Amino acid sequence: EQHNNIIPIKKQPTMKRMRLHAMMAAAVAALALMTAPVTAQQKTGKIEIVGGTTYNWGDVAPTDLKATIEVKNVGEGVLNVKEVRPGCGCTAAPIDKNVLNPGEVGKISVTLRASTSTGALQKSITVTSDDPQNPVTILYLKANVKRPFRVDPDWISVLNGKLGVESAVTVNIANTGDEALT
Length: 182
Hints:
Blueprint: H1 15-35, E1 47-49, E2 54-60, E3 64-73, E4 79-86, E5 91-92, E6 99-100, E7 105-113, E8 119-129, E9 136-145, E10 149-152, E11 172-175
Parallel strand pairs: 2-9
Antiparallel strand pairs: 1-3, 3-7, 4-6, 4-8, 5-7, 8-9, 10-11
């Protein structure tokens, strides 16, 4: 018996087989794309200060000024109000809720101590949220504090004063109100 040591030769792929492989690869890729999860654009909240970013009391007497300012979520997702920070210690501004669903309104209870002020007054409140377009919103508070009269100077310094000895000081009183001053 004679053995032939024949080594089989691997056949080269034909054009027909190559096209079949290409079509199968394309079908698998298309199937993968169709079954892949569709990533929708995430809905976000959007902040709006109802009435605008300036609150003006106008002409007022020297007192504590109060206002309720509304913050509305006009976006399609939840809005998180992270912080409401007054610009100075003369202003308080707590908000009633920090998480606002679409269309929901939060209320900032503003108190501005204007009892020691005279004339034009401007303060600010910084509202920080997760609104991707407007993460920091500045709310301006304005008032013109009018007093019925003005005393000038508004303080007096007595230098080298002695008990029982008269000191002369000139004080001017001006009517700055709308009515006669008695």
